[in-house]
Amino acid sequence: MSAPAHTPVMLRQVLEVLAPRDGAIYVDATFGAGGYSEAVLKAARCTVWGIDRDPDAVRSGTHMERRYPGRFTVIHGRYGDMTGLLGGVGVDRVDGVALDLGLSSMQLDAPARGFSFQADGPLDMRMDKVGRTAADVVNHSGEKELADIIYRYGGERASRRVARAIVEARAEAPITRTRQLADLVRRVVTRSRDGIDPATRTFQALRIYVNDELGELDRGLSAAETLLGPGGRLAVVSFHSLEDRTVKDFLRIRGGAAPRPSRHVPGPAEAPPPPSFLLLGRGVAKPSADEIAANPRARSARLRAAERTAGPPWTGAMRGGPA
């Protein structure tokens, strides 16, 4: 098999953050088609560990193991479990972690995976091919639960109308295909002025819910904090506001910028731990106009980066997204 045909989003900026060097250890925690791994391996005589929950991505990554023997290994698993996955192979400290959130092009472009509303396929959406499918959620969740999922994870203002239409349709026949669901949503949601397909937000919400993507992000950020040694770099590319807000708030809190308790609140104020991250750059970085023109999928990408301090990892999850 040849090298990955695609170029990952914001590759140049991610490499600038990671600054690969000889002898260092890096984690491409959302391996996908291996674009980040390939670039890091070419940039320095280093070691890269790829992690992906999608068994198809892991199988496709074996060609890179053959090209970079002893320097690259791909592991099947969730990046939220990377401390355990890497600990199992004797790695407890790394120099860089890259996270490229959301779907890979391979997943989106395969109708059989059920992620796309632009092609017909089974209503699946599972990244790791285990557990409940999107069809299970659509056909067995209550109307209120469906509306809450679609609103919370997709930001769909017409979520109640969509949920009601789903419940009415499934009473006649189960909804098992992506085209069924997409056409149903298009009938009840008005197309926006920006031309975005009315099914976009509902499909996004179901995918995030089915794969527990925000919970995985919380666990993955904490795992990276544990694994990175002092001076190690974290680069996170996100594609929608819920992800970006989670990363932003995590790094803001871990960087020591959390709001201080009011001096007017009675009782002793507990001092926060020392910062475990130092923010890099001025907030968020975005793709260039040239990259967006060459790859329209990069349009919504946002990169946040930080460097690990010598401070110990904070204990407990610090939720960055909405409650």
Shape descriptor? globular
Largest sheet: 7 strands, mixed
Strand content: 15-25%
What string gives the helices and strands in order? HEHEHHEHEHHHHHHHEHEHE
* SS-derived structural category: alpha/beta
Report the end-to-end length measured between terminal Cα atoms: 44 Å
Determine the fraction of residues in helical runs and give it as a percent range. Answer: 25-40%
How many strand units? 7
CATH architecture of the largest domain: 3-Layer(aba) Sandwich
What's the level 1 CATH class of the largest domain?
Alpha Beta
Annotation field: number of helices: 14
**Residue-averaged pLDDT:** 90
Total individual domains? 2
> Please, what is the CATH homologous superfamily of the largest domain?
Vaccinia Virus protein VP39
In spatial order, strands of the major sheet run: 3-2-1-4-5-7-6
CATH topology tier name of the largest domain: Rossmann fold
What is the CA-atom radius of gyration, in angstroms? 21 Å
**Which runs of at least 5 residues are low in confidence (pLDDT < 50)?**
1-5, 317-323
Tell me what you see in this structure:
The protein is globular and about 60 Å long. Strand 1 (25-28), helix 2 (35-43) and strand 2 (47-52) form a beta-alpha-beta unit. The protein contains 14 helices and 7 strands. 39% of the residues lie in helices and 15% in strands. Residues 1-5 and 317-323 have low confidence and may be disordered. The longest helix has 15 residues, at 213-227. Helix 1 packs across helix 2, helix 8 (143-154) packs across helix 9 and helix 9 (159-170) crosses helix 10. It has 323 residues and is an alpha/beta fold. It has a 7-stranded mixed sheet with strand order 3-2-1-4-5-7-6, sandwiched between helices. The termini are far apart. It folds into 2 domains: 11-106 and 213-308, Vaccinia Virus protein VP39 (Rossmann fold, 3-Layer(aba) Sandwich), CATH 3.40.50.150; 129-210, DNA polymerase, domain 1 (Orthogonal Bundle).
